[in-house]
Design brief:
This protein is of the alpha/beta class and about 500 residues long. The protein folds into three domains: about 170 residues, Rossmann fold; about 60 residues, no CATH class; about 140 residues, no CATH class. It is about 50% helix and about 10% strand. It contains 22 helices and 13 strands. It has a five-stranded parallel β-sheet, with helices on both faces. A hairpin with an 8-residue loop joins strand 9 and strand 10. Helix 5 packs across helix 6, helix 13 crosses helix 15 and helix 15 crosses helix 18. It starts with a helix and ends with a strand. The model has no long low-confidence stretch (mean pLDDT about 80).
């Protein structure tokens, strides 16, 4: 897709319901804010600026054709399920005196019925239906906010994949996936330029060389937020790792370190004297262990809430003031004021969804009994497989993190994943095994699925793979290897050790 027209029209027909779906930090909110900004430019200077930067998305006129535009944050309207009521709470009450609100409300209803309007509804997965009575049908209740059939407005709704699963197909006129930065290299150059300021001398070529040496360049995240943090690690002379868990731990250590002059350090009291493999050498985390583990507990409790509603946005009441101050100053939590005038409050969220997932994994590794009490009954029970697949992305990342943090818990999780017998879960177990090796956890004993994937193992990894395969060779039916000289050598060694593997299907990619 290269034009705004393609967002709002399909087969030359105007779309009423447009869904922009992407993972946390991929740019969904930035897109909705950009559209609102471009629409507000009266003299179209923004369009001219856009054209000078890129050949794509130069048709700003498409956006400015809308007579009215309303931008609502769904996280701030969990008390209502009607778009017009959301506009009243978030916009009208800021613009009109109380005695004029009803007239303005009626005017908005009329405008939505008779004019060319766009509603930008940001964050479906951060919205929950109110508990009270409403005009939604039983079938529609809780799926998405309601808009009256008489209204002719186009609604562009952003959400994460987990928030899209219940949307009926006939309610979707245009479905778009946003993956993040297309030109990762240019984004890296821009970020390094900002970090350099007027005095810095570091260059993109040095960053790419460092990543290439560590075999990380081809696996850079497209999420701008995570990419920024990785560049900051390199800029601050932290060693970059192939282990995603070590990378996240290093990010938290860096963030706490940057704010150490503004936060109060706590005594180094390791909870239950249990230590995590990848953290002992991270001084900033260890000197703030109490706050760090409290954040881990908060992340877990919100991700695996007892009522079944995972929360990425939550009230400031859920976080103690001193912990909130610490986490916000470090940049681990972000605090925003509600746009709803009716609820004049602030809410919190982790800077990135994967930040929350990593911290939740640390809490699980410190309290491994939670696997049996909070996760197994809900997700790994045969009767709850649908729930597992709805929450699969976050559970998959939890599993990968656990392979580095706590081998015993990861081994139990791999057994449940292996029972699902799906191609995706087979590849996931292989990914977890690689993560364990990257983090130095070479003694891990994961369940071995019938299909495994091996990506460029180094010398020390080869022995671990051979041990893993030897123990489970009867189960394996398929081995996928990246077509690389080192992997070809590995394949020869496998066949020399296990002649019976010649009957297995090998795929070289």
């Amino acid at each position: 897709m290269t034009t705004y027209r393609e967002i709002f029209k399909h087969n030359n027909e105007r779309c009423r319901n447009v869904f922009v779906v992407g993972e946390a930090g991929s740019g969904k909110s930035s897109l909705s804010q950009l559209i609102a900004y471009l629409w507000s430019e009266e003299n179209k200077e923004a369009g001219a600026h856009h054209q000078s930067q890129d050949a794509h998305f130069t048709d700003v006129d498409t956006i400015q054709e809308f007579e009215f535009l309303f931008h609502v944050a769904l996280r701030d309207s969990c008390n209502t399920c009607n778009y017009v009521d959301m506009i009243r709470n978030q916009l009208l009450q800021r613009l009109y005196k109380s005695q004029d609100i009803d007239k303005a409300y009626a005017l908005v209803e009329e405008v939505l019925e008779t004019s060319h309007c766009l509603i930008l509804a940001d964050g479906r997965d951060e919205w929950s239906h109110p508990d009270g009575p409403c005009n939604c049908t039983h079938r529609e209740r809780g799926i998405r906010p309601l808009i009256h059939q008489k209204n002719s407005a186009i609604v562009l709704l952003t959400c994460r994949p987990v928030g899209f699963t219940k949307i009926p197909e006939h309610k979707v006129d245009n479905y778009l996936e946003i993956e993040g930065a297309e030109d990762v290299q240019q984004l890296c150059i821009n970020i390094i330029k900002v970090l350099n300021g007027n005095t810095g001398t570091k260059r993109f070529a040095e960053f790419k060389t460092s990543l290439t040496e560590n075999r990380l360049w081809n696996n850079l995240p497209k999420s701008p937020i995570l990419l920024i943090q990785m560049i900051c690690l390199w800029y601050d002379n932290h060693e970059l790792s192939k282990s995603v868990s070590i990378t996240y731990a290093s990010i938290f250590d860096m963030l706490i370190g940057r704010a150490k002059d503004e936060v109060v350090t706590s005594q180094n009291e390791n909870l239950d004297n249990k230590k995590i493999n990848i953290i002992p050498d991270m001084d900033n985390i260890n000197s703030n262990w109490k706050q760090f583990t409290e954040l881990c507990k908060l992340a877990f409790e919100k991700l695996f809430a007892k009522d079944g509603r995972s929360a990425v946005v939550f009230s400031t009441r859920d976080c103690k003031d001193d912990l909130k101050t610490f986490a916000v100053k470090c940049g681990i939590l972000t605090e925003k004021k509600s746009k709803s005038v009716s609820f004049n409050s602030h809410h919190l969220s982790f800077q990135h969804k994967t930040f929350q997932e990593f911290l939740a994994s640390v809490h699980l590794s410190l309290h491994d009994d939670l696997l049996a009490t909070d996760i197994e009954p809900r997700y790994y029970n045969e009767s709850n497989l649908n729930q597992y697949f709805e929450a699969s992305k976050e559970l998959e990342r939890i599993f990968v993190f656990m392979c580095a943090l706590d081998g015993n818990t990861a081994e139990k999780m791999s057994e449940y994943l292996n029972k699902l017998d799906k191609n995706d879960t087979c590849m996931l177990i292989s990914k977890g095994f690689r993560e364990a090796l990257y983090a130095g956890n070479t003694s891990i004993e994961l369940a071995c699925p019938c299909k495994i994937e091996i990506v460029n193992p180094c010398g020390t990894d080869i022995q671990a793979y051979i041990r893993w395969i030897k123990k489970n060779q009867r189960n394996i039916r398929y081995i996928k290897l990246t077509k690389h000289k080192q992997n070809m050598d590995f394949l020869i060694r496998l066949l020399q050790n296990f002649p019976q593997l010649a009957k297995i299907h090998f795929l070289l990619t």
